[in-house]
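Researcher: Let's try something more involved. This one mixes different molecule types, so please make sure each is placed in the same coordinate frame as the others.
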Amino acid sequence: MYTYDAFDETFVTERVAQFRDQVARRLSGELTEDQFRPLRLMNGLYLQLHAYMLRVAIPYGTLTSIQLRRLAHIARRYDKGYGHFTTRQNIQYNWPALKDTPDILADLAEVGMHAIQTSGNCIRNVTADQFAGAAAGEIEDPRIWAEIIRQWSTLHPEFSFLPRKFKIAVTASPNDRAAIAVHDIGLKMVRDQHGEVGFTVYVGGGMGRTPFIGKEIRAFLPKAHLLSYLEAVLRVYNQHGRRDNMFKSRIKILVHEIGADAFRERVETEWAAIKDGPVELPAEELARIAEQFAPPAFETLAAVAPEFEMRRFEDRAFARWARANLFPHRQPGYAIVNLSLKPEGEPPGDASAEQMDAVADLADRFGFGDIRVTHEQNLVLPHVRQKDLYELWQALLPLGLATPNIGTVTDIIACPGLDYCSLANARSINVAEDITRRFSDLDRAHDLGELKIKISGCINACGHHHVGHIGILGVDKKGEEHYQITLGGDATETASIGEIVGPAFSAARIVDAVETVVTTYVGHRAPGERFLDTYRRIGMKPFKDSLYATH
Amino acid sequence: MAPQMVTANRLADGVVVYLAADGRWRERCADGHVVDDRASAAQLLATAEAAVATCDVVGPYLIDVVPGDGGPRPQRYREQIRAAGPSIRTDLGKQAEGY
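Model: All components are placed in one shared frame. Result:
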């Protein structure tokens, strides 16, 4: 994992001192709120419904156990004992006091963390596949490139005041777990016909009020040219993106309006001028960063651990958890372990300080001190020996972190919604909680197979409702919470934007409506079909008919 | 017009507050000063803006309120949640303090 060098340490420490001075000047009245707001936002500090909210960057969703313990400490000391892991692999604290934030940032800086560029019209925290460095079938660790992008984009003077915020995601697996199709730039590592590794570049994906799937503008970009090419994309956007209308200012609108071909031509023209120039990364710097993502000291083990097989055979509950929450590791004898932050009836993505400390301890004991945060708001221990899985599972059970529901109907993404967010029109967490109660029967949930429900409390779509198999959007209808359902969304390598099924449902009816959708799927599914497969085969009509027949 | 009061967030810690009749900022909505004509509402907001200048609060605005058992309470559910705390964590926010 990347460790700050002296340059990084000095940079974040100086930044904390700057912000401490800015907060002091705000509290003394030397700075007005209008003057201070952009300064606090540049440090991830928002003012939300109940209090300030601090969004801390977790670059590409990777944490050390030391960092996770520090996040627990901050939750305990400065907040109300918990944090919320977000759809951008970050963590948000919902209750910090302004006067405490310089101390929080100082505590973060000590463990190589900060909240810079978690807000504002700049390049935000770079996200990546949460199984990076562990997934079977991965081309190479995409975090090397995510870290290079992080360093290049941090306080980039040319790209600190873009027309609007800008999000980049990287994956190196054929199975896209990083939702690259709905990012401003999506990067997928591929091999060309000569075996050389590079990137397929997608641009102009996004959600919000105008959702788009990203368009491929380059099938193969050699790795060495990544930064100059990204710089060219950002320059074209910075120059031509709209600044006159906030709702049309994302790169997706520019790409849509001029077309992917015209956008590509502009990028290629710009790139030709800067390619092989000073922005390209020197080989020695690439090597310095790459070596920090070297694999941990894996043991040489048999592909399957007999202890693991025996426990799976003997213990049905363990077998169920293993089936839902484990993923294949590229190293024989190891597994990728998902820790669900979606227990029945609880807010998706929330973790208490005690849970964070416990996960850090378990990561040290079983997984090289490595923890990942997923954009689906769960945690991951990426490298666990199969023979340790039963012991790990037993330790997770009393912590409430062993719900066997990854990828199932209760593994719901939900934004904070109107319970916390000042932009929201409706609550979303309560809907998620009610759905997890409705589908609490694990046999039923597993029978339904992969089913992704995503809930947003407003059209900004932080809860990714556009790409939910079942998407739920909270709207305000004459002062009352209502929920619009979309069907057929998909955030993976077969990405699609969900379609609105019809008029919104009241808060009292939304869980029944979700159940009607699920029941309709069960009634129509062919053997082995996931919800999404059935939807794509039979279309909207059967769902619409059953929803509005009883509406 | 509907009865109104002024709410804001306290600058130093962000806590939701309401402007009381004595010009102080209170944490309970029920302690807020209710006005029911436009001139009084404008005057109340002007008082609040002065508190912005002295760094007591940020972002004051008027909200509609309705009479309740324990005093006035917000009309809109957004403001009801803001006055009480997260509906999904009743152990947090003002609701946890018995407000």
